[in-house]
Design goal:
Elements: H1 2-17, H2 21-25, H3 30-45, H4 48-62, H5 68-86, H6 88-104, H7 108-124, H8 128-145, H9 152-164, H10 168-179, H11 186-202, H12 206-223, H13 233-241, H14 245-252, H15 258-272, H16 275-332, H17 337-395, E1 406-413, E2 421-428, E3 431-439, H18 443-461, H19 467-479, E4 488-496, E5 502-507, E6 513-514, E7 517-518, E8 538-540, E9 547-551, H20 553-556, H21 567-575, H22 582-597, E10 606-613
Antiparallel strand pairs: 1-10, 2-3, 3-4, 4-5, 5-8, 6-7, 6-9, 9-10
Helix pairs in contact: 1-7, 1-9, 3-4, 3-5, 4-5, 5-6, 5-7, 6-7, 7-8, 7-9, 8-9, 9-10, 9-11, 10-11, 11-12, 13-14, 14-15, 15-16, 18-19
């Protein structure tokens, strides 16, 4: 069921995006109304060529008109159709084009549709985390800029995300929000009740399923149709809920999608206890998927074969022409062997020479063009990385509080254009939250992960949670969809500036130094690796008059040209001296590391935070 809902969800999103078409499109001129109706008809019928022609006419007619909502909705239809049925990469490019067009024209309507379209494509790509983020952003834009636009499509998109991660309570909650929308259209109502059916079935709530199914059936009877997005699928689930297996099989046979039909029959036979038939239909479901993949592979191979055949034909024609010229020269040589042979030799050598020169010229031109492209790309990447570095710098605090009871300063120097180290602090009344972290890896991926961790830390701090709770919740959020296996070590602290009491949690990070001595800390795991980790917190009774120095391993593992490391002992010896305030102490440590490294290439980011309690 899950794969099928994902398959047909795209069509649903596209259709429900027009949830306010009834009130918006009624105001369109008659000619434009006909164009939009034709485009949407072609979409439903999957008449690809006619659809793209119709949608282009709609866009041309509305791009520079007062009907911006119609224009951006048409762009959204085009991008999603391209992504699902034609070319995924082009679909993504079209979704980005909507965003850039909206941004260039400062269009709130365009930004809404761009965000919603991106969420749809992300959901179809299986990236439910980013899809959820896009739908929530679209909801925010709707509330701020489009109060008359229905929020039901966004809520139903969130239903699908929640259904995929099996959070059935959340499915019910979002479906209820969609139903509470004042201007929800009948199709969206039916879809919302369909999600309620699926959630309650998967929760084992048989009576709840029947209640939801009754509401859905009543809506279908009032407004017509075959059940909207889910069609006969919900009827299959009704028969399964009632354990009417024969009826369930008959209904499953009516399902349009073959893969869906096979998958449902497999589950029905499994629940009937007929494991042989269940296995048979499971294999059939896999064969459907394999056949699609193999047909795509055959199509690619046929295209490649056609290109090779064309190349062979061209080469054969050239060889035949050369052979014909040589035959004519040989026949003429009977009359004038010496002269013609001599001339032929010159001609042949000249041709070979010119051909070689042409080959060399073409290769040089190609190499020069590639050099120009590479140089331009390198300059563009370097420019983008410089911008990214500036953005990352702005994300880290550069202004620190001036108080009589505490002195805090932090700094980060990336080894590359962008880094993966982070630090942050938040002052909530007399509570000082702070953290220092080191993301696995280097460069842009680490920088993106660092930005996400920093954002989540600031959000969790607002809830005034304990450091170990913050670490646990960060871990839970970062483990999900972490296919690249990235993680972050962190030291998270909370100081009550009145009492001096400090709570902290060390998540796989280097132990900090307290008054020049390394602290003994719990060996918690880094954040982002394992789902079920519960992080342990620790505490220091009184921080008054003490100096805390938190750093990343770029400090103690910094190497000079002889591959010697700066080491823990050097760092400890430096921090046993009084260098002044928190800023002076941080800068002195930084200078000492730089002097030690000398001309060696930096191997890691350098990050440090110093807190002095008074």
């Amino acid at each position: 069921m899950k794969r099928v809902v994902c398959h047909i969800f795209l069509l649903f999103l596209l259709l429900v995006t027009g949830s306010t078409v009834l009130w918006a499109e009624e105001q369109l001129p008659q000619k434009l109304q006909k164009l939009t109706d034709e485009a949407y008809r072609c979409y439903s019928a999957r008449e690809t060529e006619n659809f793209f022609e119709s949608i282009k006419r709609v866009k041309d007619a509305t791009e520079f008109s007062d009907y911006q909502e119609t224009y951006y909705r048409a762009c959204s239809y085009e991008a999603i159709y391209m992504f699902e049925y034609v070319d995924r990469q082009k679909g993504v490019e079209l979704s980005h084009a909507i965003y850039h067009h909206a941004k260039d024209n400062s269009s709130d309507v365009g930004m809404y549709f761009a965000t919603f379209t991106l969420g749809t494509i992300r959901e179809q790509s299986g990236n439910k985390g980013l899809a959820e983020k896009s739908f929530l952003q679209a909801l925010k834009l709707k509330e701020e800029c489009l109060p008359e636009e229905s929020a039901a499509p966004c809520y139903l998109g969130l239903c699908e995300v929640a259904l995929q991660r099996k959070d059935y309570e959340e499915v019910n909650a979002y479906a209820r929000k969609a139903l509470d929308e004042p201007n929800i259209i009948p199709m969206n109502k039916i879809t919302a009740w369909s999600y309620k059916c699926l959630a309650r079935y998967n929760q084992g709530d048989s009576l709840g399923f029947e209640e939801a199914y009754k509401e859905r059936a009543q809506l279908i009877a009032e407004h017509g149709g075959q059940g909207g997005l889910f069609g006969e699928l919900i009827n299959v689930y009704q028969a399964k809920n009632r354990k009417q297996w024969t009826l369930a099989l008959k209904r499953a046979d009516k399902l349009i999608h073959q893969q869906n039909r096979c998958a449902q029959k497999a589950t029905i036979y499994e629940q009937m206890g007929d494991l042989k038939q269940a296995l048979y239909w499971q294999k059939k479901a896999r064969e459907v998927t394999d056949s699609v993949q193999s047909s795509e592979a055959r199509l690619q191979m046929n295209e490649f074969d056609a290109e090779l055949s064309l190349t062979y034909a061209e080469n054969d024609a050239k060889e035949q022409m050369i052979a014909k010229e040589r035959t004519m020269l040989f026949a003429g040589g009977i009359l004038a062997v010496v002269v013609i042979a001599f001339l032929s030799l010159i001609i042949i050598r000249r041709r070979i020479h010119m051909r070689n020169l042409q080959v060399v010229h073409n290769k040089l031109k190609e190499a020069y063009d590639q050099l120009e492209e590479t140089t331009a790309a390198k300059e563009r990447i370097e420019s983008e990385l410089r911008i990214a570095r500036e953005i990352q710098k702005r994300m880290l605090p550069h202004v620190f509080p001036r108080r009589r009871d505490v002195d805090i300063y932090a700094m980060m120097t990336p080894a590359k254009e962008v880094g993966g180290d982070l630090y942050a602090y938040a002052l909530l009344d007399d509570l000082l939250y702070f953290c220092v972290g080191d993301v696995s890896g280097k460069g842009v991926p680490a920088a993106l992960f660092m930005a996400e961790v920093t954002r989540m830390f600031r959000t969790l701090v607002d809830g005034r949670l304990t450091p170990n709770t913050i670490a646990t919740r960060l871990n839970h959020a970062l483990v999900e969809d972490n296919d690249q296996g990235m993680f972050v070590t962190m030291f998270i602290g909370l100081i009550n500036l009145k009492t001096g009491h400090m709570e902290f949690c060390n998540a796989g990070h280097n132990p900090p130094l307290l008054d020049g001595e390394y602290m003994k800390v719990e060996s918690n795991a880094p954040i982002g690796l394992w789902q079920e980790v519960e992080y342990e917190g620790e505490e220091v009774d009184d921080m008054h008059g003490k100096t805390l120095f938190v750093y990343t391993d770029g400090i103690n593992e910094a190497e000079n040209i002889h591959k010697e490391q700066f080491g823990d002992d050097r760092l400890k010896a430096l921090l046993q001296q009084d260098w002044g305030d928190a800023r002076q102490t941080s800068e002195q440590i930084h200078k000492a590391v730089e002097d030690f490294v000398g001309g060696a290439e930096p191997s890691d980011d350098l990050t440090k935070m110093c807190i002095k309690m008074k």
